[in-house]
Amino acid sequence: MNQTQLLKINGLKQYFPIRGGFFGRKVNDVKAVDDISFEINKGEAVSIVGESGCGKSTTGRAILRLDEPTEGTIEFNGVDLLSLKRKDMKKARKDLQIIFQDPYASLNPRLTVRQIIYESMDIQKHVKRQDREARMFELLELVGLQRHQADLFPHEFSGGQRQRVGIARALSVDPKLIVCDEAVSALDVSIQAQVLNLLKKLQKEMELTYLFISHDLGVVRHISDRIIVMYLGKIVEIGDNESIFENPKHPYTKALLSAIPVPNPKKKSERILLEGDVPSPIDPPQGCRFHTRCPFATDLCKEETPQLRTTDGMTENHQAACHYINEIDFEKVKARV
After folding, report:
1. Sequential DSSP letters for 304-321
2. Of 275, 279, 270, 286, the residue nearest 331 (C-alpha)
3. Which of 313, 291, 318 is nearest to 302 (CA)?
């Protein structure tokens, strides 16, 4: 089945300048995202996972131009978003929406739910004024809220309900792509499941495309078609859901998967324990950025940056950035916990 490409990222870099001295000159950069490329097809749910500070949320913000990328191209429906002027980018944002991580901070506390949803419609001039109320009630019902809640303020809702308001706001302009930036991480586990099921249901009914950003691999497995694993601003592995979970090839991916709790107290889990902290994105290591924590690192890893590639035993769309993809014996570094 042919798939229609919706988003294409090529060579994306997001550097944040560090200034110092009396004149505030730039002395260095925080290399939050450093030369990454990937694609998302229409109707897909693609997830980015990794530890805090790996650049996953920055990638989402850069795609929406909430932060202006330093370098690279972002093609959406064949149009380079970085070439658009402010007025044209405002129109493009109708098709590009975001659900923020914190349902408490992302809603204006001075506006009712009605006003929050109306605001999006008015900015994009997407719905006629006389049709706003009907559309607003339709959205509330769609995300599992009641009509009478339209005139309540955010502080009158629970965390899960607030996130439903955030989802309704994102849907109010009929977007094509929604960036879900840690959309369930601030919620209780039982509420997480409800919101994830809602997102999956909406994706099917409204033909939505998701870029789902999360550090929780259990959440990612539930919603993703494909998964991108990031470490210190770089993509280290990318593949379909089954390939990543059943046949991980990068040591970092394997370590992340080994940390997933086993829902059986009688069963011992086997973990790959990583030593040390994530290096600073101000001065990342040369060669493979993971080599300072990798139990398999050699001199080659310290000198040469591995490129994403596919080898024997991997599916066509499964790639990993490791010099020793098929040579690693993970059994040698497992620690029983």
Report:
1. SPPPPB--TTS-TT-EE-
2. 270
3. 291
Please give, one letter per residue, the 3-state secondary structure of 123-143.
HHCCCCHHHHHHHHHHHHHHC
pLDDT tens digit string along 126-175? Answer: 888 899 999 999 999 999 999 999 999 999 999 889 999 999 999 999 99
Residue 269: what pLDDT? 60
Q: Pick from 221, 214, 327, 334: which is nearest to 274 by CA? A: 334
Which CATH code for domain 5-95+175-336? 3.40.50.300
Please state, in angstroms and rounded to a whole number, the distance separating the CA atoms of residues 167 and 179.
11
Q: Are 165 and 151 in contact (CB under 8 A)?
A: no
User: Whole-angstrom Cα distance, residue 312 to residue 307?
Assistant: 16
For residues 319 and 243, give the distance between their C-alpha atoms in angstroms, rounded to a whole number: 10
Determine contact, residues 276/292, Cβ cutoff 8 Å: yes
Residue 249 — φ and ψ, nearest 5°?
A: -115, -20
**Residue 16 is encoded by which pair of tokens?**
């944040």
Beta strand 209-214 with 177-181 is parallel
Residues forming a β-bridge with 209: 177
**Of 146, 128, 124, residue with least CA distance to 137:** 146
Q: Give the pLDDT confidence score for residue 310 in this predicted structure.
A: 93
**Hey, what are 199's tokens?**
């997102």
Q: Which of 180, 203, 202, 183 is nearest to 192 (CA)?
A: 183
Asked if 284 contacts 233 with a C-beta cutoff of 8 angstroms, the reply is: yes
Give the Cα separation of 335 and 331 in Å (integer).
Answer: 9
pLDDT digit string (tens) for 201-252?
999 999 999 999 998 888 888 899 999 999 999 999 999 999 999 999 999 9
Pairing of β 5-20 and β 25-41: antiparallel
Residues in the chain: 337
The answer to whether residues 192 and 2 touch, using CB atoms and an 8 Å cutoff, is: no
| CB contact set of 39 (below 8 Å; sequence gap of 6+) | 5, 7, 8, 9
